[in-house]
Amino acid sequence: MKVENNLDTDKVRGLVWRLAFPSMLAQFVNVLYSIVDRMYIGNIEGIGALALAGVGICGPVVTLISSFASWIGVGGAPLMSIRLGQKNERAATQMVANCFALLTGMAVVIMTITFLFRKPLLVFFGASPSIFPYADEYMSWYLSGTVFALLAAGMNQFIICQGFAKVGMKSVVLGAVCNIALDPVFIFALNMGVKGAAIATVLSQMASCIYVLVFLFGKMPLVRITFGGYRWNTMKQVLVVGLSPFLIIASDSLLIIVMNMVIRKFSNPADGDMLLTCNTIVQSFMLLITMPLGGITGGTQTVLGYNYGAGRPDRIRKAEKHIVSLGLAFTAVMFVIAQTAPGYFVRIFTREASYVGITEWAIRMYTLAVIPLAVQYTVVDGFTGMGIAKVAVSLSMFRKFVYFLGMLLLPMLFGVEKVFFAEPISDIIACVMSSCTFLLLSGRVLGDNRRL
C-alpha cells in the first residue's frame, strides 16, 4: 500500500500541515455547495430575497441531516486510526464494515422520516406563508439525495484517516465543482428556480459518493469496505465516540433554527423576512470560517488517534501545538476580512440597500470573537480524535448552552438585532473553559492511553 503520509515515522509538523491543508481546502470548497446555491437563488429575478429566506430556513435542517454523517464518520475513523496504531488491521477493517452498514441504514431512515414531516417542521422553524413554498420545494428535492450526501461525507473520513488527505479533498472538490457548473443550468437555463438548485446539489453529492465508494472498494487503501462481521458492540462504540461531533454540528443547526424562530417572534411582520434573509447570509459567511477551521482540527485527528493508540504522547503534544497555531492563523485572517470587507460578500446575494446595510453590521458583530474559536475547535476535536468523547461533548455543549442563553435573553432585553452578539459572547467564554480543561486534563489523559 502506498500512502501519502506515514503516521508512524513522518515528522509531526509536516504531517499536520499535509493533512490540515487538503482537509481545510476541501471544507472551504464544500462551503460552496450552500453558498453557490444561495448566491444564484438570491439573484433570481423578482423572488430572490424571499426565495433566499426560504432556503435559509432549510439550511440548518440540511446541516442537521448531514451531522449524522459526522456521527458515524468522525466517530468511527478515529477508532480505526487507533487500531491501525495498535497494528490490528483486522479490527480496523471490521470497524469500517460496521460503519458503512450503520450509515447506510441511518440515511434511509432519516430521509423517510424527514420527508414525511417536512411541512410542519418548516412552519415550526419559522417559514412564513410568503417564504414557505420556496422552503418546501427546496427541501422536498434535496431529501432525495440524503443517502448520497451521508455516504459521501461519512465514508470520506475513512479515506483521510488512512493518510489519503488529497484523495479526500478531491472527493469534496468534485462535488463542489459539479454543483457550481450545474446550478446555473438548472436554475436559469432550464428555468427550474429553487427546485433546480436542489437537483443540482443532489447530482453533485451523487458524484462525490461514487468517487468515495469506488476508492474504498478498490485496492489502494489498506482498510477497505467489506461486508459481514457486524457487531452491535462495535456500532455502539462508534455511536459513543461520534456523539461529540454529531452533537456539535446538530446543536449548531438547532441553534440556527432557534435563532430564526427568535427573529420571527421578536420582529414585526415587515422586518421579519428581511432579518431572516440577513441571517441566512450571516450564517453563510460563518460557514467560510467554521468549516475550514473544522477541516484543520478534524483532518488532523488521525495524527492524534494513531499516536494515542501507539502510546506516543510526545507526538500528540507536538501535533496539538501545530494544529492550534494553524487554527489561530486562519481565524485571524478571517477576522480581518469580516471586519473590513463584509460588503463584498453580502452583495453576492443581494444588492438591495436595506438588506446590505443591516447584514454588513451583523457579520461584523457576529465574528468579533472568531479568533478564540480556534482554541475551542482544537481542544474539542483533539479529545474526539483520541476517542475521549465525554470531555469533548461536555465542552461543546457548554458553549452551546451559553450561546442559547444569549440568543434568548439579548433580544428580550435589548432588541431583536442584538441576537447577533450571542455568538462572540459564547466564543470567548468557551475558549477560556476549553483552555483550562485542556491544561488540567492533558497530562493525565496522555499518561493513561488505555486502548479503546
From TrEMBL:
Q: Where in the cell is it found?
A: Cell membrane
* Main location (coarse class): membrane
Domain of life (superkingdom):
Bacteria
Q: Which residues cross the membrane?
A: 15-35, 47-74, 95-118, 138-160, 172-190, 196-217, 238-263, 283-310, 322-341, 361-380, 401-421, 427-447
Kindly give the Pfam families that the UniProt entry links to this protein. MatE (PF01554)
Keyword check for Transport: yes
Q: Enumerate the UniProt keywords alphabetically.
A: Antibiotic resistance, Antiport, Cell membrane, Ion transport, Membrane, Transmembrane, Transmembrane helix, Transport
Q: Does the keyword Iron-sulfur apply?
A: no
Annotated coiled-coil positions are: none
Give the similarity note: Belongs to the multi antimicrobial extrusion (MATE) (TC 2.A.66.1) family. MepA subfamily.
Entry function: Multidrug efflux pump.
The protein, known as? Multidrug export protein MepA
Organism equals: Enterocloster hominis (ex Hitch et al. 2024)
